[in-house]
């Protein structure tokens, strides 16, 4: 079982590493958000918050954004494999579909983590600092859980689709509201009640708040509450994704 999962994981890592354009291109949007929002809205945030640094608030949100976008689009590999016949070969192999799902989820999550770590390193250039190694360790846990949840979500949806363009449209329709309503760019306090309610049922909200609490010391709900919520949601979405994938056809 472990060997099968490792091979599927390694295949995705090799695909990612060989696509240098994908690696570099995926850094453009996070860097744009960091520069434009960080320096554009920074002075307003500092005045409104009584002197707090907006980069401390923004950096965890942009790291989460990078993980979110990379993770959910890992589902494209399932559709790509279906179109070119590799999925059929995998499904008829003497291995369980649960092993396939685990391998693909860990592969997509690892790639998302790498992207998140690259963006996190870029935030250091712009002045963001993590206070200590313990904070970094806890932050890595949140980054991993965000990656697992949204990789599982992307694979679950992809297992029910055959159209690559349709998958991209659905993902864009889902992930933009998920990102903007998560509190990644602005505080959730004093929002209209309807928007606040939607933010509270947004899974990324707890990932962003937990990561921000871990590496920047700014948390609205409490780090361990966020950890429990995003951890439970990750388990649930992986279980749902496994059920969906077990019924998929090549």
Plain-language structure description:
The protein has 250 residues and is an all-alpha fold. It has one domain (2-246). It has 13 helices and no strands. It has helices at 2-18, 20-25, 28-40, 42-49, 54-72, 76-84, 86-92, 97-125, 133-158, 164-180, 193-200, 203-216, 223-246. Helix 1 crosses helix 8 (97-125), helix 5 (54-72) packs antiparallel against helix 8 (97-125) and helix 9 runs parallel beside helix 13 (223-246). The chain starts with a helix and ends with a helix. The relative contact order is 0.15.
Radius of gyration: 18 Å
Query: How much helical structure, as a percent, in the residues?
Result: over 70%
How many distinct domains? 1
Arithmetic mean of pLDDT: 84
Query: Would you tell me the structural class of the helices and strands?
Result: mainly alpha
Low-confidence stretches: none
The number of helical segments is 13
Number of strands: 0
One letter per element, helices H and strands E, the order comes to HHHHHHHHHHHHH
**What does the main sheet amount to?**
none
- Shape type: elongated
Between the first and last Cα atoms, what is the distance in angstroms?
22 Å
How much β-strand is present in the residues? under 5%
Main location: membrane
Domain ABC transmembrane type-2: 21-248
Membrane topology: Multi-pass membrane protein
Keywords: Membrane, Transmembrane, Transmembrane helix
What can be said about this structure in brief?
This protein has helices at 2-18, 20-25, 28-40, 42-49, 54-72, 76-84, 86-92, 97-125, 133-158, 164-180, 193-200, 203-216, 223-246. By secondary structure, the chain is mainly alpha-helical.
